[in-house]
Each structure stands twice: as structure tokens, then as C-alpha cells.
Design goal:
2 copies of one chain form a homodimer. The first copy, chain A, has 336 residues and is an alpha/beta fold. The first copy, chain A, has helices at residues 25-36, 48-56, 65-75, 88-98, 112-121, 164-176, 186-212, 215-221, 224-230, 237-245, 248-271, 276-294, 309-318, and strands at residues 18-21, 41-44, 61-62, 78-81, 103-106, 126-128, 130-132, 153-157, 180-184, 298-303, 322-327, 330-335. The first copy, chain A, folds into 2 domains: 11-184, NAD(P)-binding Rossmann-like Domain (Rossmann fold), CATH 3.40.50; 190-274, 6-phosphogluconate dehydrogenase C-terminal like domain (6-phosphogluconate dehydrogenase C-terminal fold, Orthogonal Bundle), CATH 1.10.3660.10. Chains A, B: Keywords: Oxidoreductase. Chains A, B: Belongs to the prephenate/arogenate dehydrogenase family.
């Protein structure tokens, strides 16, 4: 347990310890980055190989998840749930039992299902959902890096029942790890990642299959556009299944949008022979997204004790902005 | 007119001069690379800016297409049609009028429509279709480079009525320019590029549109998979329209395959909640394509005067192989 720096919030201004459950790519990187940032941090995982590798690298890590959680409870640590989506419910039950009343966040790729599971399985826990938008192709401790989150977007959820002091603790951890904190509702997060992460994975899978149906000739002629469009089809299927199937509710309407647009292109090509509306719309959309990304930003301050703080935080995220730091209970944000 | 090296075929073993009509990215690169390879070469284009830029760079280039074609006729040059697909028919008519009996090839992205146009509009011309699989995003002389074709696949069509001596002239030019020559039927080419080039462009357009519908939040969260999947949506719409609309017949069934696969994913996600078959198939397909690309090759010799030469060449291309050189009338090929 640290506490001598005087920075951060909660625990009377002390920096919270960090307990990471799950030490794969994301959890391992959280443990590495937390220690690098000067925090007292430890981890536990059911994976013997990840635990051994982390311990061999000099980290406070083991396979006893219950012990790690008990230690978190006694030191008022932030607990970071970094297990695969399919293991979330069972670990939530352990948290509820061994660290009730703790401050819990997660790093999984969907937020509504995890929020609902936390409410159902771990009602004594103060939960704030999180999702760092960084790497999914690798999955072990060996791929973990303290710099993984540098400059990355890290969604932290703001819901009607979110305790803003708890939200600040989680956001401060993300900021300390180098990320830009994007405050969003869980539903907005899930719809957005369906568009910009889960749909791309499904389209890459479809494109790879249709391409491979062209046999060795297709392999011989495939160049830039095909290589780009199929790159993520090389991701481990289990990871892609977990994130897409886990986001079923938000993904279905997005899949329907894509099917509608592709079907419209098909219909237009078959009837008039033209693809102008599909291609022009895609080109304009790509330019619009690039403009959003390169838009100049304005500095905004959100006082978390203000009555409209929740709405003000959500407005930051929904306009494509992000929190970069805290000054007492004021979130300092940049908004396009 | 060159001819002192004794290499190549036709004209009693002399290397043919090259006349390039159209001096954008591909045509300009053909002119640069032909000169670099030691050939006598000139070009003409309706684009004053491309002609001026080529001349300023020291190339024999101008805007008088008719004069360039007459010169090609008198020196028995290979004429390379490098104009946009929409201009092919009108230039074919000029070739038929001013350089009848010449040896003509093209570099456009579809082969059946150009073959049919050549048969209809330029019946006196000896035509061999071609398509170097290199760059489409840029389009002016300024983007042209002699090295554009180094190591690239360059399809040269082999049809029932193809004159193999003419095919060898065109293939020799592609080899001289640094390319791997892939002999294919025009229909196989068009189906294959529909899979590995035209479908990727349409999926990128659809993905960009669905992503942009997520607004500034989508722009803020978009990372690797979305950036990869939408990269070619930045290509000039006119270029994408020309190649996709120009390949309508081959593209429609490929679009239907993609719609079927995406619809099946949607149906499975909605009914069982599972996406295993889509994701596993995509992952296997990506691995299979990578295996094709990295497969060891065997050297094969095809004597163009042999009675089964046409089938032997097509077998090379259809197995993912390519011709690397000629030894007299023997094509030296590598086949996976």
C-alpha cells in the first residue's frame, strides 16, 4: 500500500493500490504500467504460465485470486477485472465474497453485459466499467507492455447510478497509465465498438472466406486492398468470438446497417449498373471521420461535485473528447 | 527503334519499341520503366498536364495520340493502352484506324469487357489483355515510378484465340519491367479481382459509412481494425467506380457470396448467439491464403510452340504460378 505522494483522490487524497485479476495482454499491461507509474500493485490469475512469467519478471503475482482480493479489501485497492468475458461472472462472484465494498473496474470489450452482471452478481461492490482501446491480437503476459495504453482511448462508463468519486478513481488510474479517458454510457460504448471494432472483424472474416474461394489465383493476385481488409482475420478466433458474441444486442442492428448498405450496392449494380452512391458515401464518411480525428480541440473543465457533472462528462465523450488529467475534483478535458 | 541487343522475340528477335497511350500512374510508370529497361519508348495522352510533366522529365511524350499511334505502326511497336476504362473504346477506335495490325495490350482492371471491346472495335489489331496489380490510389504522371512493377503480379490473358507469339511479346515487356507474369483467361481474371480487389473496396465503403454513422465517438474510439478495414475508402471515387462498375458481371455473384456469408452471420447471431462458423471460416481462409503465398515453388518450362502450350500456361496461372523469364520460345515459370 502506497500513499506518500499525496496525489489522486479517495483515501484522503492518497493514490490507491491496484489489484489486477487476470494477467494476459491487458491485465499484464495494467500491472506493469501501474508499477511504472509508482503505484503499489499486485496481480493474480488462474493461468499458471502467466502468473509464473509475471513473477519471473519481478512482479507481485500469483495464482491465488482469493488471497489477492482479500488483500485488495484490506488496503482499499482498486480492483481491475482483466479476465476473458466468459470468466467475468465467476470472478465477480469471488469479488462479492472476498472484497465486498471494494472499488471495481474492468477492461473487457463490452460494457452493458458486464454492468448488468456486476449489478446482479456483485451488488456490494462499487463498479465503474472500463475499456482501454488497445490490442486484441495477442493474449499472454509475454505480450504485455507498460506503454500499451500511451495515448490510447480508455472508455470509463458514466451511468445514472455511477458514483462519481469512484469514477474519478478509475479515470485517474487510466490517466496515470497514459490513456485518454473517454466518459461514455455503457450502451453508447457497446454500439460504438460494434461499429468500429466488431463489424470490421466480421467483414474481415467474410472477405477472407470469399477471397479464399478464389483459390491459389486469388492468393497470387491479392494485394493492398485485400491485405488491409483481411488483416484482423488473423486474430485468434476465441477472442473475436468473445467480443462479438458478447456484444450481440448492440451488434445485431449494426450488422443490419451493413447488410442494408451492401444489399443496396448489390441492387444498384444489378439494376442500373451504378455504385456511385455506395462509393461516394464511403469516401465522404472516411473523410468525415478523418476530420473528426484531426479537429482542433478546446479545453473544458468539469467539476465532479456540480449537479450536472454526469451530463457534462457524457457530453465530453459523446463529442469525441477525452479527459487528460484531474485538478482536485475537476476533470480537465479536451473536446473537438 | 532499338534492336541491337538480340533479346526478346518477334521482329526477328529484336526488342520491340513501346508506345504508351495514357500517362497517368500506370501508363507513366510503363513509359519510365520501359526506358529504364533499355527500350525505345514514347507516350501520348489527352491530359495536357501529364504530357507536359512527362516531357519536362525528359520523356518523349506529347498530346498527339494519332501521331504516336502512326509512329507505332511504322516501327512495329507494342502499343500499351493505359487510359481509364471509360476511354478505352474511343482509343481502340483510334488504334484500329491509325495502327491496324499492331500488337496491342492494355493495363486496365477488367479483362472481359476490354477483350470484347477490342474484338468489336479493333478487329485488325492483335490484342493481348494485361493487368499489372499495382497501385490505384494515385493517378497522375507525378505518382509514376519505374519501380512500380518490381515483383508485382502482371496478368496477361490467354484466350482460345490468343496468338502466343503476341502473348510472349507482351509478357516479355512485363518481365522486362520487373513483374511476375500471371497467364489467365480473361474471365478468371475478372472473377478473381472481383474477390480480392473490388469486393474489398465495396466493404471498405460500407464500413466507413456504418462507422461514420457513429459520429464523433466512433472517430475517437476507432483503432486498428477499423483503420485497416477502411483504408481504401480514401481512394478517388471515380477510380473505384470505374473498376467496380466495369466488372459488373463478375462482381455481382461475388457480392452475393459476401451478402450470403454476412447474412448467415447475422442469422446465427440472432438465433443461437453464435458466430463460430463465420469467424472460424474467416480465420482458416486467411491462413490458407497465407500458406498459398508462402508455398515453395517448382520450376516449370512451357514451350510456346507445343500443341498444349495454351493449357500449360493457364495451368501455371490457375495454380498461383507466374512466368519469370523466356528462353527462346520457352516460358520459365515458378508454380507453387
Amino acid at each position: 500500500m502506497s500513499g506518500d505522494t499525496g496525489e489522486g483522490t479517495g483515501k484522503g487524497g492518497a493514490v490507491r493500490d491496484v489489484c489486477v485479476i487476470g494477467l494476459g495482454l491487458i491485465g499484464g499491461s495494467v500491472l506493469r504500467a501501474a508499477v511504472s507509474s509508482g503505484r503499489n500493485a499486485w496481480g493474480a490469475t488462474a493461468s499458471v504460465s502467466d502468473a509464473d512469467a509475471a513473477a519471473a519478471d519481478g512482479y507481485d503475482a500469483g495464482t491465488d485470486v482469493v488471497e489477492a482480493l482479500r488483500r485488495a479489501a484490506s488496503s482499499e485497492a482498486v480492483v481491475v477485472l482483466a479476465v476473458p468475458l466468459t470468466a467475468v461472472e465467476s470472478v465477480l462472484a469471488l469479488v462479492e465474497r472476498h472484497a465486498p465494498g471494494c472499488l471495481l473496474t474492468d477492461v473487457t470489450s463490452v460494457k452493458v453485459p458486464v454492468r448488468d452482471a456486476a449489478r446482479a452478481v456483485a451488488p456490494s461492490v462499487t463498479f465503474v466499467g472500463g475499456h482501454p482501446m488497445a490490442g486484441t491480437a495477442e493474449s499472454s503476459w509475454h505480450a504485455a507492455a507498460a506503454e500499451l495504453f500511451a495515448g490510447a482511448a480508455w472508455v470509463t462508463t458514466v451511468e445514472p447510478d455511477t458514483v462519481l468519486a469512484a469514477w474519478q478513481e478509475v479515470a485517474t488510474l487510466a490517466v496515470d497509465l497514459g490513456a485518454r479517458v473517454v466518459p461514455l454510457g455503457a450502451g453508447t460504448h457497446d454500439e460504438t465498438v460494434a461499429r468500429i471494432s466488431h463489424l470490421p472483424h466480421l467483414l474481415a472474416a467474410v472477405l477472407a472466406s470469399v477471397g479464399a474461394a478464389g483459390g491459389p489465383v486469388a492468393a497470387a493476385l491479392a494485394a493492398g486492398s485485400f491485405a488491409d481488409g483481411t488483416r484482423v482475420a488473423g486474430t485468434r478466433p476465441a477472442l473475436v468470438r468473445a467480443m462479438t458474441e458478447g456484444n450481440r444486442t448492440a451488434l445485431l442492428p449494426v450488422l443490419d446497417e451493413a447488410l442494408g448498405a451492401l444489399g443496396a450496392a448489390r441492387g444498384s449494380l444489378a439494376s442500373t449498373g451504378g455504385l456511385a452512391s455506395t462509393i461516394d458515401a464511403g469516401h465522404k464518411a472516411a473523410r468525415k471521420l478523418a476530420e473528426h480525428r484531426h479537429a482542433p480541440t478546446t479545453s473544458v473543465r468539469v467539476r465532479l461535485s456540480a449537479p450536472d457533472a454526469r451530463d457534462a462528462l457524457l457530453a465530453v465523450g459523446e463529442r469525441g473528447g477525452y479527459v487528460t488529467a484531474f485538478d482536485g475534483d475537476v476533470a480537465l478535458a479536451e473536446v473537438p
